[in-house]
Amino acid sequence: MTRVLGRVTSINVRKVLWALDALGESYEREDWGLPLRDPHDPAFMALNPNATVPVLVEDDGTALWESNGLLVYLAQTRGALLPKDRHELGLALQWLGWQASELNPAWGYAVRALLRRTQGYDDVGKIDDSIRRWTAKMEILEA
């Protein structure tokens, strides 16, 4: 059975779980990622040298990582999550990349400070800047 390594509080893990659910795929999820299980553990690092979640492990032992890559992989190997029309496909992939490269970095500091309450993320100026940048990105999304 396919395994997904990662904590459910990670948006990147949740994307992969949502895709598997949408495809009707069975899977097992294992808690990895701080504060649950340290992804710097040698067993995890053997699967993903970046020490980040999620990691998808196939029945044959193949381990894949990077959430947006996993979404495309699942769509290609399991079913029709992506549009067939080339223009619609281009738009879907465009927004998939945008989420990872533009939206996530914009909100990262504020999420760690305000939601996760990560130690060391208490600079009010950085929190305000993160919220401002996230708001600007959301305006692009909603336009």
Explained architecture:
The protein folds into 2 domains: 2-78, 3-Layer(aba) Sandwich (Glutaredoxin); 86-142, Glutathione S-transferase Yfyf (Class Pi), Chain A, domain 2, CATH 1.20.1050. 55% of the residues lie in helices and 10% in strands. The protein is flat, with a radius of gyration of 17 Å. The protein has 143 residues and is α+β, with helices and mostly antiparallel strands. The chain starts with a strand and ends with a helix. Strands 2-1-3-4 form a 4-stranded mixed sheet, covered by helices on one side. Helix 1 (11-23) runs parallel beside helix 3 and helix 4 packs antiparallel against helix 5 (124-142).
Attribute tags:
143 residues, alpha+beta, Glutaredoxin, Glutathione S-transferase Yfyf (Class Pi), Chain A, domain 2, 2 domains, 4-stranded mixed sheet
* Quantity of strands, as a count: 4
Q: How does CATH name the architecture of the largest domain?
A: 3-Layer(aba) Sandwich
Radius of gyration: 17 Å
Oligomeric state of the chains present here: single chain
What distance lies between the first and last C-alpha atoms, to the nearest angstrom?
Answer: 41 Å
Q: In sequence order, what are the helices and strands, one letter per element?
A: EHEHEEHHH
Taken from the alpha-carbon principal axes, the silhouette is: flat
The percentage of residues in β strands lies in 5-15%
Low-confidence regions? none
Major sheet summary line: 4 strands, mixed
CATH fold category name of the largest domain: Glutaredoxin
